[in-house]
Specification:
About 40% of the residues lie in helices and about 20% in strands. The longest helix has about 60 residues, at about 10-70. It has seven helices and ten strands. It has helices spanning about 1-5, 10-70, 80-95, 190-205, 245-250, 295-300, 300-305; strands at about 100-105, 110-115, 145-155, 160-170, 180-190, 215-220, 225-230, 255-260, 270-275, 290-295. A five-stranded antiparallel beta sheet has the order 2-1-5-4-3. It has a five-stranded antiparallel beta sheet with strand order 7-6-10-9-8, sandwiched between helices. About 30% of the residues are buried. The chain starts with a helix and ends with a helix. The protein is elongated. By secondary structure, the chain is of the alpha+beta class.
Length: about 300
Amino acid sequence: MKQTFDRYGWLPLLVVVMIVAVGGIIMFGLSELEDTLTDRTGRDLQWAAMEIAEKLDLLLFERYGDIQILSDSFPEGGTEQREARWAQHLKRVQEAYPIYAWIGLLDKTGRVMAATDPDTIGRAAGSMARGTQLDGTPLDGTPPIMVHEIPHDDLLKEQQTVGFSIPVTIPSLSEGSNSFHGYMMTRIKLSELDAMVTRTLRDIGAKTDLRKGLEYQILTRQGLVIIESLRQERKATDLVALGLESARQVIAGRSGFVLERHLRRDISVLTGYAPMPARKELAALRWGILVRIDQDASLAPVRSVVRT
């Protein structure tokens, strides 16, 4: 009996070894699956950032083209009621292009002569309009159309906006009356762009596994956050100065994805990043887009299997 026991005494050890081996193979396979899933999710996030960058670029470039056409459509001026006619014209333009929160006509000094918001008439728009000579010749070699990031817009109750301006000359029909030389300016609220980004992410989520927990941030070319899905700080956050790798890469003009720590929540996140196309007309708005998801959320299916 003892001899029989000795003959099969190694079986428990074999069972343990087999369990450990199979467990090791399973864990190795799950680890490889995690890496594959991380890579796939990262590429989806990168694609989402590139999609947003392309749509922002197209939307803003269309606005760049708008102002060239709209600046030539003002009714010719006279000595009577010209500001009222100009204001009516601007209102019709705004009705046709509701994306604009404000459109105005400024004189040489930057004072608002006519606008879609009558409360802004007579106010000064500052020096943002005056970057070109009134004949349209650039003062510093830049195109006559100027593009502005405006963190606190005085003309729109301190809201964040993007502005476009162009020199205009409106001839006069009345003898003895001089032509009007000034600037046309348009404003778009960043909240309009925020809504567009949110819709884009919702559409992307319907096509991929990125359905829940997505965050995004849009950075200026200096690395400052101007639009984000989380509640924004009153003061713009400089992500490059804080050492965020995705911000550093996107400001350098690169696209890709990276595993990093969330600066506010201190957890691991996977971040896809992409810059807006390097279009010379929108060089002032060469923004970077970050789209991220919690690492735990992206790996939840695999880790559920591991726990089981």
